[in-house]
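Entry type: protein chain
Record version: 2
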Amino acid sequence: MTSNQLSNLPKKQALIDLPPDQRKANLDAALEREAKDLEGANSEQVGKMLAVVAGMIGCPIPPTPVLAKYIQMLTEYPADLIEEAGTFVLKRHKWNTFPKVAEFIEPLLEEYHERQAKHRQTRRLYKTFTGQEPPAL
């Protein structure tokens, strides 16, 4: 069965049809991929996005302690979602004031929560099909 065929089947049914060793290998790969998709952005990525937003909106960057808090709060989220949030803010923010941190977080929360739910589901499937706790990644 090809990976395209597997992706077209319901996940649990696709796993049932595989031999146990392939089942575990697929689950290991899925856990690794999903963990990477949930990995938080680094400070440099967030700082760069915030600088671009400030420059394009035409407002000053907040003082260092405030900026550090923005960065701390936003590094929890994956880099690709941070970039999307920056673009979202640029398209919708109407004033030349620095956006609130919630303006960056709100547009990415749904996708972030979906990724978390998918990862939890894969961890449950791992335990169901292998009889083992999923590895910590």
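Comment: The radius of gyration is 19 Å.
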